[in-house]
Amino acid sequence: MRVVSGEYGGRRLKSLPGDNTRPTTDKVKESIFNRIGPFFDGGKVLDLFAGSGGLAIEAISRGCQHAVCVDKSYQAISVIKENIAITKEPDKFTVIKGDANRVLERLAKEGQSFDYLFLDPPYAQQEIVVQIEKMLSLGLVKAEALLICETDKSVALPDDISGLSLWKRQNYGGTEVVIYER
């Protein structure tokens, strides 16, 4: 696993050992970022189920200004911090250990909102639609934001979610990426 492009392009990232997580493959990551904009001029990122932090690091590498990485696993948080260290710009990242739903409420209380929101939960525990609706109601989603959701292809995310429209849907083997825009 590596950073595909941008300022940190080519740098190797660590992943979590074992079968409990499945990091986004370089192929899927490259395709996602080619679709949402290969490079950015600022913007704030939320990586809600960060795992290794690869999506957030890729976004910062390509020009986003700050990323918040959230995961509930101590092991994931450790790997995220190690991967952020390879950027040599830790001030561009905030790492939060906690349950996704509770962290969303905390971020809302802090007055935060995001331009790019990545949701790649454990496939068996995904509640993407509920979490998107929560993010919208809490004011975490900026106008014209993109929400990038990665699921098992057997999960059928709807075309319409209140306040969002489907922008792109793409299958990559057993993975489906659905992108919504506000």
Automatic annotation (TrEMBL):
This is 16S rRNA (Guanine(966)-N(2))-methyltransferase RsmD. Residues 1-25 are annotated as: Disordered. Its EC number is 2.1.1.171. InterPro entries: DNA_methylase_N6_adenine_CS, RNA_MeTrfase_RsmD, SAM-dependent_MTases_sf. One of its GO terms (molecular function) is nucleic acid binding. The keyword Transferase applies. Keywords: Methyltransferase, Transferase. It comes from the Bacteria. It is an enzyme of class 2 (transferase). NCBIfam families: 16S rRNA (guanine(966)-N(2))-methyltransferase RsmD (TIGR00095). The gene is rsmD.
